[in-house]
Amino acid sequence: MRFSGWRVLKEGLTGNKGWTGHWRDPEPKREYDVVIIGGGGHGLATAYYLAKEHGITNIAVLEKGYLGGGNVGRNTTIVRANYYLPGNSEFYSHSMHLWEGLEQDLNYNAMMSQRGLMMIYHNDGQRDAMVRRGNAIINQGDDAELLDIEGVRQRAPFLNFDDNRFPVMGALLHRRGGTARHDAVAWGFARGADMRGVDLIQNCEVTGIDVENGKVRGVQTSRGVIRAKKVALAAAGRSGQVAAMAGLRLPIESHVLQAFVTEGLKPIINHVIAFAESHMYISQSDKGGLVFGSYLDFYNSYAARGNLPMVEHTMESIMAMVPALGKARLLRSWGGIMDMTPDGSPIIDHSGIEGLYLNCGWCYGGFKATPGSGNAYAHLIATDRPHGAATKFKLDRFRSGYGLMDEEGTGAQHNLH
Ligand SMILES: Cc1cc2nc3c(=O)[nH]c(=O)nc-3n(C[C@H](O)[C@H](O)[C@H](O)COP(=O)(O)OP(=O)(O)OC[C@H]3O[C@@H](n4cnc5c(N)ncnc54)[C@H](O)[C@@H]3O)c2cc1C
């Protein structure tokens, strides 16, 4: 079924009886060429690009819950290509180019909104760091502009410019940054993969990975054994647990990241605004809710809910920077499990076991990576060579120490990211 304005008109005039489900609900087959563990954004995008660009369609995506019920449906929807370090910079640039054509490609409204992203700096040191970052982004071929305080005031007059601890001095503006509707992205990739013959199997938990003589043979699941020539992990916050099923110990810790949304309000915030202090950020959803968040909860956990100290910290920071927010009623808060690597950068690589591939370590930034990650991972699985934009996402860097990408300058230590 193709979506178009004509289709909407026709269905509207004929009682909306012609819409069909977006994907099938097949029984798992006994064997596939590729099994993908995890029906989040990355798993679904991988299946889509494997089918579309490499002609591999005998694929199952195995999801223990429902499609899009993980972090892809829990994030704060920020999309950007403003990374500083080689490795990350070219990858997120690649991903942004895919985002920019995604809705046409998928024939699906992902509500991509390039409303611009401002990263606020509060002191001279942060400004200098932003200048360096901006130059790196421009060298990569993406966009960055340094704004002074007046530039920020014009765009966001409601900010508190005179906070004693965190005065607003200016911002690095990334005009092509913005947001996309998270669950629509998952649904769009799911539909695109299904249309090309991929089996999307929900309520199917992988409980074991079968390896014989150093080669993967398939997976054990809550719906029986499924054999596969290749098995690809895309389990986000559960990556460490799933990899352990094949005897692997990944350099990943799982932490909770929380987010918050207020009641719907009239349009007030045009951009995504991130603050160099407090790791805090805020934007307004298309429904009008003010969506915001800040740091990780700094203890390891597999619970998709957070704790009060981080709620308190986030509320304190957001009230310092956007005092008017105090008048809005908070509607909901939630948490998701982040797969944190020591250097804050991801892994797309072979596992060391023949036929078993790894895609993990996206930390709190993997939504913006969704198309790029799926595209690069599909390339690796299909060709056994890394995609040109993802050559530095090697597992081995954590063993050798060579090639670490410490994007945030916090050191290769989980709990500082
Ligand atoms: C509050 C919050 C805010 C965020 N904000 C942003 C943001 O603004 N921008 C950004 O770029 N990123 C953001 N992120 C990070 C981003 O959401 C994640 O990095 C990304 O979604 C992870 O990839 P995924 O979509 O494939 O994960 P998921 O959607 O979590 O997919 C993994 C899937 O694997 C399944 N699974 C796990 N174990 C098994 C098993 N044994 N068998 C079968 N299935 C299994 C899970 O059920 C899950 O559905 C945020 C995350 C959170 C929680």
Automatic annotation (TrEMBL):
User: Which Pfam families is this protein grouped with?
Assistant: DAO
User: Ranges for the Rhodanese domain?
Assistant: 34-78
- Gene Ontology cellular component list: cytoplasm
Catalytic activity, as annotated: sarcosine + O2 + H2O = formaldehyde + glycine + H2O2; sarcosine + (6S)-5,6,7,8-tetrahydrofolate + O2 = (6R)-5,10-methylene-5,6,7,8-tetrahydrofolate + glycine + H2O2
Entry's Gene Ontology BP terms: tetrahydrofolate metabolic process
Which residues does UniProt call coiled coil? none
Q: Chief location of this protein?
A: cytoplasm
The record's top EC class is: oxidoreductase
**PANTHER family named among the record's database cross-references:** FAD-DEPENDENT OXIDOREDUCTASE DOMAIN-CONTAINING PROTEIN 1 (PTHR13847:SF287), SARCOSINE DEHYDROGENASE-RELATED (PTHR13847)
Q: What is this protein called?
A: Sarcosine oxidase subunit beta
Source organism of the structure: Parasedimentitalea marina
For this protein's source organism, the top of the classification is: Bacteria, Pseudomonadati, Pseudomonadota, Alphaproteobacteria, Rhodobacterales
